[in-house]
Specification:
With 391 residues, this protein is of the alpha/beta class. It folds into two domains: 7-298, TIM Barrel (Alpha-Beta Barrel); 312-390, no CATH class. The N and C termini lie far apart (56 Å). It has helices spanning 33-45, 69-79, 98-111, 139-148, 150-159, 175-184, 209-215, 231-238, 246-254, 269-279, 286-297, 325-340, 346-353, 379-390, and strands at 7-9, 16-18, 22-23, 50-52, 58-60, 66-68, 87-93, 115-117, 120-123, 126-137, 165-170, 189-193, 219-223, 261-263. The strands form three sheets. Strands 3, 4, 7, 8, 9, 10, 11, 12, 13 and 14 form a ten-stranded mixed β-sheet that branches. It binds iron/sulfur cluster (2 copies).
């Protein structure tokens, strides 16, 4: 397919992937299923050949229809007869034991309608390279994976041709686990967060894990290039404190030489189009990168210990008190940021009070949500703070 999107080497896989990937997490957040189809088709039309989905990316859309990201991706690919290259599909499961690994992988293979043939894996007539991730590894999950034999099970399924590459995703605060995982040599691909405001897993870390993974021949998908879902709302509060744009953020990530592809989380075709156009701009110079980093560092402290509204905690977990944690803690974060930068907090307090569903005062600090925050936030403690501050 003729495409203007630039391609990058995908580690030692022998593949080249589009610098801008399609993040399929947001397909569940649109108004209609047709919009979800349109988004995937648009990405393919632009020459995007890496789609980042997960077993857990399910949700009820604006019309009240349950949308499963893997299902949408599969339906679109099955409908296409014009794709003349393999499409890389990254999907992820929460199976950290051999049994649950098999269970989750088999559901994904089924939802994606992947056919195993003598020539490889296919969805309809489209060849796919399936990258299967252990989703969001962190210390406890990693120990379970090692002791239960889940990694060997992943390798067995890979050797059997049920998946093409094995990988893992991880988040900030899990650097030691990420390094251990890379050191096993079991994984060919990883997905890690990195952006202008938080470079701790790359150049600002004790070890540059992006470089380390690349040196181990791994393909690297960069997530959270825009600092998570909450960035738009928080940047409105930050207003004129920084002049950093989305384009700057994307180009900053593209300037990391170890990144293979960026899942920037575009929700609509127009956003994806903007990301693609930004990716075609000249690379930032070293001086421009340094200036942007210095500007971001003026406010990056405001992003510590706040909810990013990434919604990951709700993918496999429900609060027994019915609290929708991302909305409650996201609204609370905006009150705190407004306060920290000396803005009027009243609009943000009102926005918090106007949220639907139970608020922080419903939290009984049971702690059940704690293992599910990808950012290791102490959710019960934040709920207690929010209750004390906002009632
Ligand atoms: S600690 Fe609070 S928010 Fe977390 S699960 Fe328990 S009641 Fe829900
Ligand atoms: S509590 Fe953690 S996992 Fe849940 S939305 Fe906020 S940052 Fe994401």
């Amino acid at each position: 397919m003729q495409t203007k999107i630039k391609r990058r080497k995908f580690g030692d896989t022998g593949l080249y992937v589009s610098e801008v990937a399609l993040g399929a997490m947001n397909l569940r957040m649109l108004d209609t299923v047709e919009q979800a189809f349109e988004m995937v088709n648009y990405a393919l039309d632009q020459g995007i050949n890496l789609i980042d989905t997960a077993r857990a990316y399910n949700g009820v859309n604006g019309e009240g229809v349950m949308v499963e990201s893997e299902d949408i991706v599969s339906r679109v690919l099955a409908s296409r007869t014009d794709i003349d290259e393999p499409i890389v599909i990254v999907t992820k499961g929460h199976g950290y034991t051999p049994e649950t690994f098999d269970e989750d992988l088999d559901i994904s293979l089924n939802k994606l309608r992947i056919r195993k043939t003598g020539k490889g894996l296919f969805i309809g007539s489209v060849e796919v390279k399936l990258v299967y991730f252990y989703h969001g590894i962190m210390r406890e999950r990693w120990e379970t994976m090692k002791s239960s034999g889940a990694i060997d099970q992943g390798k067995r399924r890979q050797a059997a041709g049920d998946l093409t590459y094995l990988g893992f995703s991880a988040h900030y605060g899990d650097g030691d686990v990420i390094k251990e995982a890379i050191d096993t040599g079991a994984f060919q691909v990883t997905e890690l967060p990195y952006n202008l405001y938080n470079r701790v897993l790359s150049e600002d870390g004790e070890i540059d894990l992006f470089r380390y993974a690349a040196e181990h021949g791994m393909g690297i998908v960069n997530m959270k290039a825009f600092n998570g879902t909450a960035n738009l709302a928080t940047s409105r509060i930050l207003g004129d404190m920084v002049s950093i744009t989305y384009s700057d953020m994307l180009r900053f990530c593209l300037g990391n030489p170890y990144v293979s592809a960026i899942d920037a989380g575009a929700r609509w075709p127009r956003e994806l189009e903007q990301d693609i156009n930004d990716s075609l701009l000249p690379p930032l110079t070293k001086e421009e990168r340094a200036a942007l980093a210095a500007e971001a560092d003026k406010v990056s402290g405001l992003f510590s210990n706040i909810c990013r509204e990434c919604t990951h905690c709700m993918e496999k977990f429900q609060c027994p008190r019915g609290i929708y944690i991302p909305s409650v803690l996201g609204a609370y974060a905006r009150v705190n940021i407004a306060e920290a930068v000396g803005r009027d907090t009243e609009p943000y307090r009102k926005a918090y009070a106007a949220l639907e569903g139970p608020l922080a005062d419903a939290c009984v600090a049971c702690g059940q949500c704690r293992p599910w925050c990808e950012y290791h936030l102490d959710i019960p403690a934040l709920m207690t703070e929010a209750k004390e501050k906002l009632g």
